[in-house]
Amino acid sequence: MGAFRDEKTQLQRSSGMSFALRWKHENLRFIMITACLSVLSISALLLLLYGTSARYVTLVVNGQEKKVYTRQWVMERFLEEQGIAVGAQDRLSASPDSKLANAERVTIDHTVSVQLTADGETKKMYTTGKTVERALQDLNVTLGNLDKVTPDLNASVSENTAIKVVRVHKTINEVAEPIQYQVETKYDPNVAAGKEQTIQEGKKGVLLKNKITLFEDGALVTETIEDTSVSAESVKKIVVVGTQKPVSALSASADASRQVSKNGVTFPVKQIMKNITLTAYTAGVASTGKSSGDAEYGVTFTGRHVTEGRTIAVDPNIIPLGWWVYIEGIGFRRAEDTGSAIKGQKIDVYYESESYAKRFGVKRGVTVYVIGPQKPSLE
């Protein structure tokens, strides 16, 4: 038996293949055009993505600013690209692993180490300051008006520069101190010799002082006194000392009843003293060591003011203070003053004129009549 082919089936298969080939032939151009368009689209997309990955960054390193073009997305890679090393103590505006945005401003400040001594501590610190002043400001070290800084504030700072701040503190305290009173002694010929009497008690004054104390880092450095003022004046103590002596002390042969007449005046004398030496003095510096502005200028040992024609200086052991005498060639005078050079048979006569006192010179062999506490009258 022979085999029979199915002509219908073969016809159908042939027709299908022909359709596929015909479809492929007819649509090949479309397929190629579509493929080309797809490739172009992908390429354009990649180009677009590549273009958008580029960014401009403002880079500021230690104050120096510039614009930088980069395709890096991460801060750390951007710094590597720019060849910038950032130490652990350097100051970066963002963390190394942060994303880098377009138009971002990246700030980098490199620091140097300094040895800072302040407030009792020494520390190693890191600063961006280029001078000592800037470094202290950067490290938040506040200076007082009197604080001392070494080196100078304008000095440059480099690695391991030693900076020392000494805290200076000043105090001003008002201190009261006593003013000692003076003792004034007045000699009174009407009071018995050797007797003393206080007629005015002394009182201390008060002197106010501003005591200025300086401390450096808590240690006392200096103490000074400024702006003194008197809060209360002192009051001097006044003591009266008697100088009255018995008549017998002048001379064993003293005769109170002896009468002497001089220049029309008759008066009793207690003693006649011969061979007395006379000199002259004034109230000025040359004679007393005092100037016209001094408080005791012109004041005698007995407290009286010197008066020409009345005052003489004597040795109280020879002529009692307060007694009157008559000096040959001079006239009546009163013993009111003393002097370190007036000892024994010497009398210093007061004159207002310094030139006259110099011309007076020294007169020897003069007779002096000692009268007593009362001055003779013309009656």
Question: If you had to describe this structure to a student in words, what would you say it looks like?
Answer:
This protein has 379 residues and is an alpha+beta fold. It has 4 domains: 55-109, Ubiquitin-like (UB roll) (Roll), CATH 3.10.20.30; 112-166, Ubiquitin-like (UB roll); 173-240, Resuscitation-promoting factor rpfb (Resuscitation-promoting factor rpfb fold), CATH 2.20.230.10; 247-372, Barwin-like endoglucanases (Beta Barrel), CATH 2.40.40. 19% of the residues lie in helices and 41% in strands. The protein is built from 5 helices and 22 strands. It has helices spanning 7-53, 75-82, 132-138, 285-288, 354-360; strands at 55-61, 64-70, 91-92, 105-109, 112-118, 121-127, 148-150, 161-166, 168-179, 183-192, 196-200, 205-216, 219-232, 237-244, 258-262, 265-269, 271-281, 311-313, 324-327, 331-337, 346-350, 363-372. The strands form 6 sheets. It has a 6-stranded mixed beta barrel. A 4-stranded mixed beta sheet has the order 2-1-4-3, with no helix packed on it. The protein is rod-shaped and about 195 Å long.
